[in-house]
């Protein structure tokens, strides 16, 4: 067996299951589960129709690179969304379709890490658990960069010692962040690109929540836009990861893409050829339609905006929860233990939330997820408002 498998941590939902096992909710109210970040709004009809229409393509092996029309649609979307110079992205060199960002974020570490050089990979803490598993199985040492209230829940790159930067081969960032919802400003991304040049590492920017934001006039910036705004003609050391799962409510379709540095992409392509993870032909056709349509994305954002506003109205000041800059999570700071809060909330209100410490690691400066819970506002509005009422009732009694 691969000995690195021993380093993998139990997944947060397994820890949640253990935390709640043996607890019986006191109330006859229906269970509401806010612990899982699975989009629940209706997928766009044009995409599901395209998927069905193209099922006959099942008779063909798809190419790892995908069809050119899909890569072109993705390229156009990126250029419009992040104000990239026209023709700055070559669909043949800078873009690869992937079966959701999860597998791509994992596969990417296997491609770029050189395990012979005592590598370090930096990631935010708390974080999307795949980063850590990817890094451990690639033979690198994870370095956790705590994202705390003091830093606006953003990674503070200036706190990383040079000794760590010198060994660093890969940095994961997540913007908007899961679970905090914090958005990395363009300047911070540019600062990170400068560090990447200086210390020779690759940036993997997980932007799968980039289309879920409340300020319609101010979409979150992205890494490629930050690079272009610095006047860089290429996207050297920069890779972005995007997904249809959250943008278009299609988590079951498994569709996303990676875009950026052409040289790294070439090696990533080679890796993927052997890995055997080409996107099925019908999924490619449906994804092309999805990336070409913005109206369903605008509508989806409106649902989230309405939901956050209704939920925060009900929660009021019973909990320190605020509107996130992006993504669909509340990340309230509690007065005490997150695991106790989650367990008692389940017992009293039959409401499931995820303890923040299950999403983060202990560090010398403590566990930055301790004393927080993650609540995904993915359920329909009524259910989320019902949950907010329960949280309000519970928080009043929980000290
Ligand atoms: C931060 C983050 N990145 C990536 C993913 C993976 O999404 P997908 O594989 O559906 O694109 C998720 C899913 O919840 C996530 O929260």
Write the element-wise H/E pattern from the N-terminal end onward. HEHHEHEHEHEHEHEHEHHHEHEEEH
State the end-to-end distance: 47 Å
Summarize the biggest pleated sheet.
7 strands, mixed
Figure out the total of helices. Answer: 14
Report the structural category. alpha/beta
- Work out the radius of gyration: 21 Å
Give the integer mean of the pLDDT values: 96
> Main sheet: which strands, in order across?
2-8-7-6-5-3-4
| Beta fraction | 5-15%
- What is the 3D shape? globular
Helix content: 40-55%
Ligands in the model, by name, code or SMILES, are:
pyridoxal-5'-phosphate
State the total count of DSSP E strands: 12
Poorly predicted spans? none
Defining key terms:
three-stranded antiparallel β-sheet; alpha/beta; binds pyridoxal-5'-phosphate; 12 strands; 399 residues
């Amino acid at each position: 067996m691969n000995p690195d498998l021993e380093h993998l941590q139990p997944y947060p939902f397994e820890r949640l299951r253990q935390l709640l096992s043996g607890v019986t909710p006191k109330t006859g109210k229906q269970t509401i589960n806010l612990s899982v970040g699975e989009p629940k709004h209706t997928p766009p009809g044009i995409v599901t129709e395209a998927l069905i229409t193209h099922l006959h393509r099942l008779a063909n092996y798809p190419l790892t690179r995908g069809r050119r029309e899909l890569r072109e649609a993705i390229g156009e979307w990126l250029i419009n969304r992040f104000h990239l110079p026209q023709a700055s992205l070559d669909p043949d060199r800078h873009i690869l379709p992937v079966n959701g960002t999860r597998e791509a974020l994992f596969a990417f570490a296997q491609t770029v890490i050189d395990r012979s050089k005592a590598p370090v990979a930096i990631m935010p803490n708390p974080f999307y658990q795949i980063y850590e598993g990817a890094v451990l199985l690639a033979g690198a040492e994870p370095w956790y960069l705590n994202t705390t209230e003091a830093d606006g829940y953003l990674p503070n790159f200036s706190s990383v010692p040079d000794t760590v930067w010198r060994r660093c081969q890969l940095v994961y960032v997540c913007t908007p962040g899961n679970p905090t919802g914090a958005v990395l400003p363009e300047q911070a991304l540019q600062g990170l690109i400068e560090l990447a040049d200086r210390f020779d590492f690759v940036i993997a920017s997980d932007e799968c929540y980039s289309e879920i934001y409340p300020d319609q006039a101010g979409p979150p910036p992205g890494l490629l836009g930050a690079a272009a705004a610095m006047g860089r003609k290429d996207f050297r050391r920069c890779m972005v990861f995007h997904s249809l799962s959250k943008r278009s409510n299609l988590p079951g379709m498994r569709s996303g893409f990676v875009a950026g540095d052409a040289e790294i992409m070439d090696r990533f392509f080679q890796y993927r050829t052997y890995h055997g993870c080409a996107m099925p032909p019908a999924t490619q056709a449906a994804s092309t339609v999805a990336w070409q349509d913005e109206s369903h994305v605008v509508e989806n954002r409106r649902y989230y905006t309405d939901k956050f506003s209704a939920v925060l109205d009900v929660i009021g000041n019973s909990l320190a929860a605020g509107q996130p800059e992006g993504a669909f999570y509340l990340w309230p700071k509690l007065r005490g233990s997150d695991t106790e809060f989650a367990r008692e909330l389940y017992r009293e209100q039959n409401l499931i939330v995820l303890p923040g410490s299950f999403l983060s690691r202990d560090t010398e400066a403590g566990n930055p997820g301790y004393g927080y819970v993650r609540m995904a506002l993915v359920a329909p509005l009524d259910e989320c408002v019902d949950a907010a009422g329960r949280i309000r009732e519970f928080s009043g009694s929980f000290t």
